[in-house]
Amino acid sequence: MSAVNKKFFEDFTSIPIRDQSLPNHFDAGEVIHIALNFTGTRLAYSRSDGSVRIWSMMNEGGRESVVIESPHTKPVELLCFNPQEEFVFLTVARDEYIRVWRTNGVLQREVQVKSPVNKSGKGSDKANVILQHVGYSSDGQIVVVADREGWIYGFDALFAPIFSVDVGEYVYSIMWFHFEHKYFACGLQDGSIPIFELVEKSSEHQLLYEIRKLTTLRGHRSSVTCLAIDPRGIYFAAGSNEGVVLIWKNETMLVTRVISDIDEAVTDLDISRDGTYVAVSFDRTASGKIYDISLGDKIYDIPNSLSGSQVTPQIRWFPQKTTFVYVGDKGRNVVLMKRPEEGLRKRADDKMGRLGDGDGVKGRDIRDSRTNKDHRENRDKRITRESRESRESRDNRDRDIRHRDKDTQKRRLHHQRY
């Protein structure tokens, strides 16, 4: 199976997505964070020059871009798309604001987050916070943010505050399980992974939640820097500073696979749409790699994917096809990696009025409908041709009959005359 998987990636080609520098900037800086929307039609990423770039992926390699020059006063630390709204995403940038954007660059909303306690811990005069993480629940109904003090804040879809919890450690990553908005896990600085449950409780004016810690997973000896869940909900992966990736099974909460062939800090994880592959980014001198998630075997070395001087590399799989984007050129550019034939299929699908991956059921349905249409057109042409031939044959037959009738009538008249 590994040999087959390795063969699959051999034909992948790279398509750099190149940005122009902002006015009065020497260059565009390095890429800090990348995200894809749930349809794979928009790619957004932040740069160290303070900008956010949004690319339309409707065409091969991206053809249309929107630039938000200063979404915050500082460079955007993290951004994420709404899993229910294709063209809406959130940003945080080491300040106290969550900002809601549309992919056309329009600021839709700004939410200020305040700590439930002040610096002295007495609970009066709520203090501003410094946000470093933001994410949606799987159903898009809950937004969570984490600050650098170890507090996690929850908001409903309208950004009304519904819970806050102090986990007591620096939060590197937050991951939601596929149970709407019921369970989430955190990757913490002490190497633990606490799993929390959100329990609804009634309120006179709004729905609030009680936070319960279900369990704490342990297995790493250093900070858990990143978490990623299998889109099928079977596994999730955790990466750490000691260079170890643990594959956990959701049903049992037990480790099923250990990936530890690279002795460098893991900076980013993402799992492919079908749960077959896990993409891993490393700090410093190791390139990004793709592993078979069930076997733990390395399948592919991602070219030109070393860390930049300021930021760490990242990889994101497309949600509807086995294609990915990553930060390449030592943090300078985002690169699309894809199989060549996907572009040909996509262009054919575009002619049918949609952007398809050509690999899934929808792509097959379109090809089948196109084939059926061709069959119908050929059948109609054949019927038309046969009908025309039949009509011509009938006309010729009628003409012959008329001629024969005339000849017969002439002979009859001739006999009558003589």
From TrEMBL:
Cellular-component GO terms for this entry: THO complex part of transcription export complex
InterPro entries: Tex1/THOC3, WD40/YVTN_repeat-like_dom_sf, WD40_repeat_dom_sf, WD40_rpt
Superkingdom in the source lineage: Eukaryota
Residue windows of the WD repeats: 217-249
Keyword Repeat applies: yes
UniProt entry tagged with the keyword Flavoprotein: no
Pfam families reported in the protein's UniProt record: WD40 (PF00400)
Gene3D superfamilies in alphabetical order: YVTN repeat-like/Quinoprotein amine dehydrogenase (2.130.10.10)
Biased composition (Basic and acidic residues): 345-410
Keyword vocabulary terms for this entry: Repeat, WD repeat
Biological process (GO), any one: mRNA export from nucleus
Region Disordered, residue ranges: 345-418
PANTHER family registered for this protein in UniProt: THO COMPLEX SUBUNIT 3, THO COMPLEX SUBUNIT 3 THO3
Protein family according to the UniProt entry: Belongs to the THOC3 family.
Name of the protein in question: Uncharacterized protein
